[in-house]
Write a structure and sequence with these properties.
With 198 residues, this protein is mainly α. It is 65% helix and 5% strand. It contains 9 helices and 3 strands, in the order αααβααββαααα. A 3-stranded antiparallel β-sheet has the order 1-3-2. A hairpin with a 7-residue loop joins strand 2 and strand 3. Helix 4 crosses helix 5. The radius of gyration is 23 Å and the shape is elongated. The two termini are 44 Å apart. 19% of the residues are buried.
């Protein structure tokens, strides 16, 4: 079964428990951090570039080949994006706990004191059903890596720096005439079009 379907079932069960007083307030807050809606005030927590379901797919993907700690999962995702995206511990660790409660991963003994994780049979089956979605998420990560590589080209860095300096110097002036502001806007719009069409 796909992760989001399992997640919906998990959240529905959790909501029923809360209505019947089977969970305390703190426990309910933990589930909200894992992406469940709760209390009428909660909102799904999302990372800036990738949502929680994307992160859960990536976790299953990396655990499908190796047992890993949370920190190792963070570094694995960062490596694909070549440092352009690093998921926070605040989204990795709650989703590890959620995936364990959903039966898709399980904690295992490791050489260190840190908790390590591995996929269950259910986790392998869920991941197999979502290869298309996983491919899209990995492609987005890889595109960030390409973006970073190209943005680090010295000539690109120099041009971006000169652009920022010129723009900030001009916009930092007081009482700019409207004609000047319109000219800057037109220049920026034209530059964007030229880059898009290049």
């Amino acid at each position: 079964m796909r992760i989001h379907q399992l997640h919906q079932q998990f959240c529905a069960k959790h909501e029923r428990h809360e209505r019947h007083g089977l969970h305390g307030g703190h426990h309910g807050h933990d589930h909200n951090e894992k992406g469940c809606m709760g209390g009428g005030k909660g909102r799904m927590r999302r990372e800036r570039l990738f949502d929680a379901n994307d992160i859960r797919l990536l976790i299953l993907h990396f655990l499908s080949s190796n047992i890993a700690h949370g920190y190792e999962l963070i570094k694995s995702i960062e490596a694909i994006a070549k440092g352009e995206y690093v998921p926070s511990p605040g989204i990795i660790y709650p989703n590890l706990s959620l995936l364990e409660e959903m039966g898709l991963i399980t904690a295992v003994q490791s050489d260190s004191s840190k908790k390590a994780w591995m996929l269950t049979e259910e986790g392998h089956a869920s991941l197999a059903e979502q290869q298309d979605e996983l491919s899209h998420v990995i492609a987005r990560l890889e595109s960030l890596g390409v973006l970073g590589d190209n943005r680090r080209i010295p000539e690109i860095q120099r041009a971006i720096h000169n652009f920022k300096v010129a723009l900030n110097t001009k916009l930092g002036q007081t009482d700019l005439p409207k004609e000047t502001l319109y000219s800057i806007i037109d220049t920026l719009d034209q530059a964007a079009k030229d880059i898009e069409r290049s």
